Amino acid sequence: MNVRDAVLQKFRHHFGTSPAVLARAPGRVNLIGEHTDYNDGFVLPAAIDRAVYIAARPRPGDTLVHMLSVDFDAQSTFSLYNLDDPDLPRWSLYPRGALWWLQEHGYLVPAFDAVIGGDIPIGAGLSSSAAVELVTLELGLALAEASMPQLEKALAGVEVEHQFVGVPCGVMDQMASAMGRADHALLIDCRSLETTPVPVPAEVSLVILDTGKRRGLVSSEYAARREQCEAAARALGVETLRDASLAEVEEARARLGDLLYRRARHVVSENQRVLEAVEALRSDDLVRVGELLRASHASLRDDYEVSCAELDAMAEIANAQTGCYGARMTGAGFGGCAVALVATDAVSAFVEAVAPMYKQRTGLTPQVYVCRAAEGSGVERLSG
Ligand code: ADP
Ligand code: MG
Questions:
Q1: Residue 90: inside a domain, yes or no?
Q2: Whose CA is closest to atom 15 on ligand 1?
Q3: Ligand 1 atom nearest to CA at 52
Q4: What's the pTM value of the predicted model, to 2 decimals?
Q5: How far is the CA of 29 from the centre of ligand 2 (A)?
Q6: What span, in angstroms and rounded, lies between the C-alpha atoms of 215 and 125?
Q7: Residue at 290 is within a domain
Q8: The sheet that has 204-210: what strands, in order across it?
Q9: Is residue 224 part of a domain?
Q10: Axis-axis angle for helices 172-179, 128-143 (nearest 10)
Q11: Mutate to test the pocket of ligand 1, among 76, 122, 173, 369 (most ligand atoms within 8 A of CB)
Q12: Separation between Cα atoms, residue 156 and residue 15, nearest integer Å
C-alpha cells in the first residue's frame, strides 16, 4: 500500500471516522548549487516523489489536537494554547511549530484529529523536516479556511525552523517542498527568491544514494565555511560572493591567500555551474549536465573541503556506471547523500551494481532511492 493510502487507512481505523482533509508536502534533493545559498547565489533543487502526509478532521469547539504518528508509532495530545510545552514529545515539535506560526499570524486553526506519516527517510538529508513544516501549514490553512501563496508558506516554514525549532536553516528546502513542479527542477535565486522551473527530461531518473555515513562535523565546519566566505567577500570588496566573478577571484589570489581563494573559487564557479546546468537541461543536453555534476563534486571535495571518503567513494562508483550521466555529493557534506542522474532504462542495473560495490569498499550498507521530480505541497478536501 502506498503511504498516502496507509495514512488515510490509519486515520479511519484509529478515529473511527473519515478524514476531511489530506495535506501533502514532498522532500527534496539538490541537483547542483551547494554552499551557494548563504552567499546569495543559485541552487537547483527538485521536490521528489516522496512526501509527508497528514489526514485530519476538525473538532470545532475543542482545544485539543490528537495527532498520531505512523513513523514514530506514537500519539501526542496537545493543547492549541500550549504548543511549546517542553514535556511534549520531540516528534510533534515541527507540526506544533507550524500551528504556532499560524496562530502568531492570526489564523484561527480549530482543534483536530490527525494522522501524520510519510516515506521521506528521516534525518537522511532529504528534508523531511521542511516537509513536516509545509504539510502542517497546508493542513492548518485548510482547516482555517485560509490560503497563502506558496512562497509565503515556504518562508513561514523557515520561520518555524528558526524560531520554534531553533535550527538556522536556509530557504532552499522549504521553497523546494512548497514550490516544486512535477518533472521540473527549481532554479532559486537565493538573493531575490525568484524561482524558475527547469524541465528534467523524462528519460532520466534522480537516484539518491545515502552513504549511511551520518554527518558529524557539519555544524562547526558549516559555520567556519560561512565565515570564510564572508572574509573572502570582504577581501574582494563585494557584498557577497554572488557579486564576484571568477576573473576577480583569480586576480585577488595572492591577497586572499590559498584557503580563502579556494573557498571563493568554489562558490563563484558553483554559481556558474548552476546556470550552465539550467541551460543544458533546457536543451536536453544531459551529458553536459553530468559533467557539471562531476565538476561540482570535485570543487566541493578539493576547494571547499566538505566531502568525505564515503561521499567520494559513492560518487566515483556511481560515475563509473553506464547510464549514469553524472553524480555528486548533495547537501552540506561530511556524510549524507549523493545524487546521480541516471538514464531511466538503466536504473535497475545501476542500483544493482552500485550498492554492493559501495558496501565492499566502505563496509557501509547504502540506501538507494530512485526518484522523479514531483509537485510541491498541497491539500485535498476529501468527500465523505
Ligand atoms: P531531515 O534531513 O530529514 O530534514 P532533520 O533532522 O532536519 O532531518 O529533521 C527530522 C525531524 O523531522 C524528525 O526528528 C521529526 O521531528 C520530523 N519528522 C520528519 N519526518 C517526520 C514524520 N514522517 N512524522 C513526524 N515527524 C517527522
Ligand atoms: Mg532538515
A1: yes
A2: 91
A3: 23
A4: 0.96
A5: 12
A6: 9
A7: no
A8: 324-330, 337-343, 204-210, 367-371
A9: no
A10: 50
A11: 122
A12: 30
pLDDT greater than 70 at residue 384: no
Domain count within the chain: 1
The enclosing H or E element of 310 equals helix 309-319
Residue 356 included in any domain: no
* Three-class secondary structure of residue 93 per DSSP: helix
pLDDT tens, 286-325? 999 999 999 999 999 999 999 999 999 999 999 999 999 9
Nearest atom in ligand 1 to 93's CA: 16
Q: What is the mean pLDDT of residues 322-341?
A: 96
In this prediction, residue 167 carries a pLDDT of 86
Any idea what the CATH number is for the domain that residue 154 is in?
Answer: 3.30.230.10
Boundaries of domain holding 161:
3-200+375-381
What are the b/e assignments for 71-82, b being 16+ CB within 10 Å?
Answer: beeeebebebee
Residue 80, pLDDT above cutoff 70: yes
Ligand nearest to the CA of 88: 1
Question: Separation of 94 CA from ligand 2 center, angstroms?
Answer: 10
The pLDDT tens digits of the residues spanning 149-180 come to: 999 999 999 999 999 999 888 899 999 999 99
Q: State the distance from the centre of ligand 2 to the C-alpha of 125, rounded, in angstroms.
A: 6
State the pLDDT at residue 123: 87
